[in-house]
UniProtKB/TrEMBL annotation:
<dbReference type="Pfam" id="PF13738">
    <property type="entry name" value="Pyr_redox_3"/>
</dbReference>
<keyword id="KW-0560">Oxidoreductase</keyword>
<protein>
    <submittedName>
        <fullName>NAD(P)-binding domain-containing protein</fullName>
    </submittedName>
</protein>
<dbReference type="InterPro" id="IPR036188">
    <property type="entry name" value="FAD/NAD-bd_sf"/>
</dbReference>
<dbReference type="InterPro" id="IPR050982">
    <property type="entry name" value="Auxin_biosynth/cation_transpt"/>
</dbReference>
Length: 367
């Protein structure tokens, strides 16, 4: 085994919105790219998880992309260009951003394990090994699709897939598709797939459509609820559980087309379809699990950051600092799992970690 470990003050793991925001602030605080801080990113190109989003997700159908600190998206894409694919536009923006601020992003590199080595943290990757004084983890959720277990799952003869694997509706033509989930992605896929084939829509609870506009205050209240959970060491919970689904024109049109007939969850998967507790069965060819993602944190397992209930107790100004190990910050996690949250969290984590490690060399003008 190669025991040489490259010494670095702060290692940022993940080069999406959260990681780039953290890197920007580390640079502004005077850390030098390379020895001072380095971003490791598993993705082949700039863009974080946006580069993997399905082609029909456009700048019109995403919720909203918040600008990274110090450079607006409008510098790369005219705000009127709403039909551009998110998987092209956002990576172009992130690439320009990395270049503008000379961010030291090393890719593709996957962090495999982070271990406590007393004064330092050892980070094993699929390339070199690093020895860091602190870590800002920004690995997002895209690599951790979540699929609930239902009996019979392994016996199903059709195809099972997750939002993560979705490309375009045409691939479902002629198949009967069960779409599971009550989030925005589930509804977008239901909208698209129901135009080309027969669909069934299943959710655990009746979905909560929100008629009123989602105001900035609603956003703050939703974030505060998730922040409160992680400060208590609880698992953050899904985005929809705090925001609800907007009752927008697309949803109204789906209702008019008769595709919003939500069914309760089945209790079992059979080789050819789904079975409910009352014995009713439906044949389906494909089960599309739009059941969300969890945070991709497996590489941090050796640090034993989790509480008994599986949550991670967070502290610090924006709840980015792990209470059990203050050298570790999680950004894009819990209350900061949105582009706006990731942005702010990156700044807060950079400043707190630099202070904690006694590395501060200059004031971040963004403070
Ligand atoms: C379908 C979908 C649509 C969304 N739409 C919106 C929206 O419109 N507005 C909004 O605010 N939010 C949206 N979100 C949430 C959004 O993804 C986040 O807010 C934000 O983009 C996440 O940024 P991030 O930096 O935390 O993660 P990511 O963009 O996922 O970046 C994480 C990076 O870390 C890398 N990585 C992962 N594991 C490792 C590892 N072990 N080692 C090294 N690198 C690693 C990944 O390759 C990736 O490049 C959406 C999410 C989904 C799933």
């Amino acid at each position: 085994m190669n025991s040489l470990a490259y010494k670095i003050d702060i290692l940022v793991i993940g080069g999406g919105q959260a990681g780039l925001s953290a890197a920007y602030h580390l640079g502004r605080l005077g850390l030098k790219g390379g020895k001072g801080y380095l971003v490791l990113d598993k993705s082949p190109q700039p863009g974080g998880a946006w580069q993997f989003r399905w082609p029909t997700l456009t700048m019109r159908t995403i919720n909203r992309l918040h600008d990274l600190p110090g450079m607006g998206f409008a510098e790369v894409l005219d705000p009127g260009q709403t039909e551009v694919r998110a998987a092209e536009a956002v990576p172009a923006y992130f690439r320009a951003y990395e270049e503008r601020f000379h961010l030291p992003v090393y890719r593709p590199v996957t962090a495999r394990l982070v271990c406590d080595r007393g004064e330092r943290l050892r980070v094993e990757t699929d390339r070199e090994t690093f020895s860091a004084r602190g870590i800002i983890n920004a690995t997002g959720t895209w690599d951790a699709p979540q699929i609930p277990y239902y009996p019979g799952r392994e016996l199903f003869l059709g195809r099972q897939m997750h939002t993560h694997d979705y490309h375009r509706p045409e691939e479902f033509a002629g198949r009967r598709v069960a779409i599971v989930g009550a989030g925005i992605s589930a509804l977008q896929m239901l909208d698209e797939i129901s135009r080309v084939t027969d669909t069934i829509w299943l959710t655990r609870r009746p979905p909560e459509f929100r008629d009123a506009e989602f105001t900035a205050e609603d956003g703050r209240a939703a974030v505060a609820r998730v922040e409160d959970r992680v400060r208590q060491g609880l698992i953050p919970g899904s985005v929809v559980s705090v925001t609800g689904i907007p009752y927008n024109p697309a949803i109204r049109a789906m209702q008019a087309r008769g595709v919003l007939n939500r069914q309760p969850m089945f209790s079992e998967i059979t080789p050819t379809g789904l079975r409910w507790p009352d014995g009713r069965e439906e044949a389906v060819d494909i089960i599309l699990w739009a059941t969300g993602f969890r945070s991709a944190l497996d590489h941090l397992a050796p640090l034993q950051l989790r509480e008994e209930n599986g949550g991670i107790r967070m502290t610090g100004r924006l709840a980015t600092q792990v209470a059990r190990d203050p050298r570790v910050h999680l950004v894009g996690y819990g209350p900061s799992a949105s582009t706006i949250g990731a942005n702010r969290a990156g700044g807060a984590a950079a400043r707190e970690l630099v202070d904690h490690l006694g590395l501060a060399t200059q004031e971040d003008p963004q403070t």
